[in-house]
Structures are given as structure tokens and as C-alpha cells.
């Protein structure tokens, strides 16, 4: 049985509080799971929070001890690219951060808390980047499927056939291939770690919580019942005008999710945690922005239920209450 935990972003106190609430007990640097259970982390362990080293210590110790599994989030993928030189642009990195462009400044700011806490270029930095490479882009565990941002069968197949699978470290060749703009592997990687996005028309952009402008909008492509763009466009409050009058993208999937339930994070939901449907739960409820760190206690059910959600906010754990 699994306890699936959403995006932590360096919130070590919330993580430890949630683990204790779930019945995990301290063991070395990590925690030991209750009998017959295992934790699954959905990625985005780093960036933003003040306790990033402690979060990484906990998760790694639990994985080493067989108490947990973890998939790669876009922030772990970005952390690797931030530290690996771009072979096509000597002096710059796969995730640009050396120049004075708007992109470089944004990337430095986004990753700044991690760099400040770990030390850029330090042996510890290199060790964590090497560890991030070992995280798989997704996992199909039979009873459940997990990915950071969305589950897409074709994307899973593309990365699997290319050799990026659980148990195999992300090597430089695959890293470069999954950064190559417009390539099939880049698109597959982006779907799993960053989700589906729609390019906005010229003049429109989404402004995020940090003031950065994005010319794409995230789509909740798992909402097969949707008939209008505003039902699937994940935009911050106050940005709704940017999608007004736009149609759903051509070819938007409306096939209901079948088979094993899917768990994702990534999307910074707000409010009281709840599942998206009986087949999909997003467990990112903005823990690094004052929201709760959320877990789902999966006990083998084919249909998910709000009653299995547990979350931690300010050292006060809560179970779902309708």
C-alpha cells in the first residue's frame, strides 16, 4: 500500500509533520514506513523552501532503505540542466543561467534558494545533481501510475523505448536529447514533468506569482468532461482575461481515464484539497506558498476517494472533511 506525497519544495517541517501523521517513525536521517506501506514522492523536492537539504536527506534516506520511491519533477530536471554545460553553446548550460538575458535571470532566481543552501559547484551540489539523475520520469506500479505533471501513454512509451526508465540514470546523451527544442523526446519529457501547455496568441501572456510572464497556459488535459477552455486552463487568479474567447486546442483528448488510478503534482492548486476524479488526484496544493502538503493513502482501491486525503499545514495534520 502506498502513501503518495505531493510537491514539497523544501518545506521540511511540513514533510516531517505529514510523515508522522501518516504513522512513519524517525529512522536515521529518514523515516520508517508503517508495516506494509511505502511512500511515493511526486517530485519537486527542491527550490523555494528553507529546508531543502533536510528534505533531500529524508527522501534519499527513505529510498535507500526501501521505505520510499520518487519520480523526477521539473525542478529536479531543471537542476540537472542548470549544472550541465550545453555542448552546442560552450560557456552556457542546458538550462541557461550565465548570461544577462531575461531567461538567465529568471532561472537564477528560481533556483537561487537551492544554490544558496547547497553551494554552487560544491561537492555536495555535484552529489545531489548526480542523485537527481537517478529519478525516473514516471512509474507504473500496477495498481497505480505516477508522474509529476500528467500521465500520457505515448510519452511514457517514447521515453521507455529511448532507454530512460526506472533503475537507469539519466545520462548526458538522453539529457541533451530531452532538451532539444521540438524533438519527440523533449515533448515527451515536458508532458510528464511539466504537463500539457497551449501557446497563447501574440499579446497574451500569463503572469505567475513571481511576476514572470509565460506565453503558454497549462492545461488539465485529464479533464475529459471539459467542453470549454476555461474548464481546463490552469491560470492564476486575476489572469482569466488572457484566455477569454479562446477555443480548446485541436485534438484535445476527451477519452476518460481507464485502468489504474493516476497521481500527479506540479499544478499549484489552492483551497481545500480534493481529488480531480475517481481516477486522478493532483496532490500539489501549494505547500511552498502557505498551502498544505498533501498525501493520498492508497489501499488498493480502483476508484479514488477524498476520504483518503491527508494534509499538513503549520504542524497541524488534517484528514478530509466534506
From TrEMBL:
InterPro entries: Ap4A_hydrolase, Calcineurin-like_PHP, Metallo-depent_PP-like. Residues 4-82 form the Calcineurin-like phosphoesterase domain. One of its GO terms (molecular function) is phosphatase activity. GO terms for cellular component: cytoplasm. This is Calcineurin-like phosphoesterase domain-containing protein. Coiled coil: none annotated.
Amino acid at each position: 500500500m502506498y502513501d503518495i506525497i505531493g510537491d514539497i519544495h523544501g518545506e521540511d517541517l511540513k514533510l516531517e509533520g505529514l510523515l508522522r501523521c501518516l504513522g512513519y517513525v524517525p529512522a536515521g536521517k529518514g523515516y520508517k514506513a508503517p508495516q506494509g506501506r511505502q511512500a511515493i514522492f511526486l517530485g519537486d523536492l527542491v527550490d523555494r523552501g528553507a529546508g531543502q537539504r533536510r528534505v533531500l536527506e529524508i527522501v534519499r534516506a527513505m529510498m535507500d532503505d526501501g521505505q520510499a520511491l520518487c519520480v523526477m519533477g521539473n525542478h529536479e530536471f531543471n537542476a540537472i540542466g542548470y549544472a550541465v554545460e550545453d555542448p552546442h553553446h560552450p560557456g552556457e548550460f542546458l538550462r541557461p543561467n550565465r548570461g544577462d538575458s531575461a531567461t538567465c535571470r529568471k532561472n537564477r532566481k528560481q533556483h537561487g534558494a537551492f544554490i544558496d543552501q547547497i553551494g554552487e559547484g560544491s561537492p555536495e551540489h555535484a552529489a545531489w545533481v548526480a542523485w537527481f539523475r537517478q529519478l525516473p520520469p514516471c512509474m507504473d506500479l500496477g495498481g497505480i501510475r505516477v508522474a509529476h505533471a500528467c500521465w500520457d501513454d505515448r510519452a511514457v512509451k517514447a521515453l521507455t523505448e529511448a532507454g530512460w526508465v526506472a533503475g537507469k540514470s539519466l545520462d548526458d546523451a538522453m539529457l541533451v536529447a530531452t532538451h532539444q527544442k521540438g524533438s519527440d523526446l523533449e515533448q515527451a519529457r515536458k508532458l510528464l514533468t511539466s504537463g500539457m501547455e497551449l501557446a497563447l496568441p501574440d499579446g497574451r501572456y500569463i503572469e505567475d506569482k513571481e511576476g514572470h510572464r509565460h506565453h503558454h497556459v497549462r492545461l488539465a488535459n485529464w479533464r475529459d468532461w471539459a467542453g470549454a477552455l476555461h474548464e481546463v486552463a490552469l491560470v492564476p487568479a486575476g489572469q482569466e482575461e488572457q484566455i477569454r474567447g479562446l477555443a480548446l486546442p485541436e485534438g484535445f483528448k476527451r477519452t476518460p481515464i481507464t485502468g489504474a488510478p493516476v497521481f500527479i503534482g506540479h499544478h499549484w492548486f489552492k483551497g481545500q484539497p480534493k481529488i480531480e476524479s475517481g481516477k486522478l488526484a493532483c496532490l500539489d496544493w501549494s505547500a511552498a506558498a502557505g498551502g498544505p502538503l498533501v498525501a493520498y493513502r492508497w489501499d488498493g482501491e480502483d476508484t479514488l476517494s477524498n476520504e483518503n486525503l491527508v494534509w499538513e499545514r503549520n504542524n497541524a495534520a488534517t484528514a478530509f472533511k466534506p
